[in-house]
Amino acid sequence: MTSSDQVLLKTIESALADGQPIRQDFGRNERLHIDRPMPFLVVHVGRAREPAARDIVTASSSYLLVSSLQRAKAIVGLVAESMVERFGAFIVLDIGELKRDRLASDADYLPPFEMTLSASSDAGAKAAAAAFSAATEKVHSKFRIPQLARPAIASDPAAKLARLLPKLPVLTLRFAPIYRVPESDNVYPRLHEQLVANLVDSGLQAIAAFTASTKSLAISSHRALGRRAFIDAVSRADKAIDDVAQSFDFLLAVTPINARAAWEEFSDTGFERTPQLLYRPLTMAVDQQKKRLFSVALDHFEDPVLTTLYREKQQELDLQLSLLAARETPRFVELGRALYGPVEPSLLKAAQAILDGTKSERGKGPRDDADVAFVQRRAQAMIEAYVGASPQFDATVEVRDDLPGGMMVSGGRLLIARSTVMAKARVEALLSHEVGVHLLTYFNGSAQGLRLFRSGLAGYEGVQEGLAVLAEYLVGGMTLGRLRLLAARVIGCAAMLDGASFPDCYKTIRAFGLPESSAFNLVLRVYRGGGLAKDAVYLRGLLEVLSHLRSGGSLDPFWMGKIAASHFSIIQELSTRGLLKAPQLVPAFLSHPQAGDRLKKAAAGMSPIDMIGN
Questions:
Q1: What is the pLDDT of residues 359-368, one digit of tens each?
Q2: CATH value of 3-225 in 3.40.630, 3.40.190, 2.60.40, 3.40.1440
Q3: What span, in angstroms and rounded, lies between the C-alpha atoms of 376 and 431?
Q4: How much is the pTM?
Q5: Which NCBIfam families match (predicted)?
Q6: Edge to edge, what strands does the sheet with 413-417 contain?
Q7: What are the extents of the domains in the chain?
Q8: Nearest to 325 by CA among 248, 241, 403, 238
Q9: Which phi and psi (to 5°) does residue 459 adopt?
């Protein structure tokens, strides 16, 4: 052993004694990473180019990349001694790739692929091996499935490290490089990602079985063994992607600044001609932002879950930028369809049912209206109440002349149109929507340490708007008119996507009995930018949230930041791993006197129409 090896071992020994996180680089692309003491170490030995194996290993919270067996033996021995003292047991998972894919063929079906797993003879390692085998058998893949062989350590040519560590529990895993394009250095990216994700999960299940067998660590789920800290590469990419996201406000950029003049023009033509809509000039160059966006490297995160989240966000921002470049052109509609999706037949049917089921209940006489000054005061009061609970709730209120009537949130700002007039009975409900959901999740997301959770995971808007509409119901502010408006938005989006003109869509909405001003504002929103199907997300999101509650789901994870329904299991995993914190604030509307009973009704099963008067 060289003098540099001895220095390295002393450094590692000292770090282990301190019990602090370790990220020690040495040699050529060698590293010991332990983000917290754990009763296991995942190891890759050798200099061979095995990117999938290395990605599986580096996704672990405790791993070693090392070039030589002797150095591996020495480092593993030090780590094992420290962890056995702490936990009473310790296991090594040695991962690598086979030289070639021997089961591949030109058959017209996808053959299985070779995988070998040997285990030491102790009960803990046997339990781990059994759990790994069971986990791989449960994987449902549209690609190839593993054919697992279980050789003894003595006859396993890959188990060299295990034979050097006879006193330690060791699993030795080797798999065929099925992610490689045959006769080439190229890879199948999607297959590579799926292979890594599946084997990372199977490895965690194996280690969880070992900890259960040896009683070395009590955990709620195998996911709790995953990474608890993100590395600098994640922080750098997070900032870079957020810089692009903050360079533009998508909704402001596609919102007309001449709503009042457009209404006058439209009404003067007898509602027969599409009005001219004017927009804010873009404050950035789309091509430059796209260049910045795709210059962000996502391949060194050492965390497949986070890599997936950032890749999805990258793709969503790309679509938004493409939409801005196509503003007021025919391409805008189709790019918007790609971003927000079509209006599904089931959603259209639900919207039609609401409008048909409530058509005889229009209007209830005169109402007590609130002007913009009243709304601003109430908004400021609600924000101050949140500030009292957390000084980090640094929201501001702006009254704007360049918005259609109503409110919207942009980052940490609540924007209120100066022309806003609404029923006083609706003010608390709409502020619960904007402040209690949109602003609250922005500031809770800011506290997570990654800006992604404040700007929003890809596709977050659906469930976010669903939660915001639910908030209106929980404070008793869901009115017949509001529900019909949400349903009519779906009808308007469907008509626009089917090619209806602005005047034709307006006539369709008016036929449902909406007042002229409400119908115009709805159609204006639907045709902004050239035609945007975003407004279908309100009813779609509400139905998603009601379904989530009906199936016994909790709302708590949704307050951590701006997340999509599709990310619910991912958020639970990141929370279990300790990577996400509990929300700093919970919505004030949950403390409304009737909120608890209303939530119980929602969990028992209700339709949107059931929200009226309940």
A1: 745 555 567 8
A2: 3.40.630
A3: 10
A4: 0.91
A5: QEGLA (TIGR02421)
A6: 396-400, 413-417, 407-410
A7: 3-225, 249-283+326-611
A8: 248
A9: 80, 15
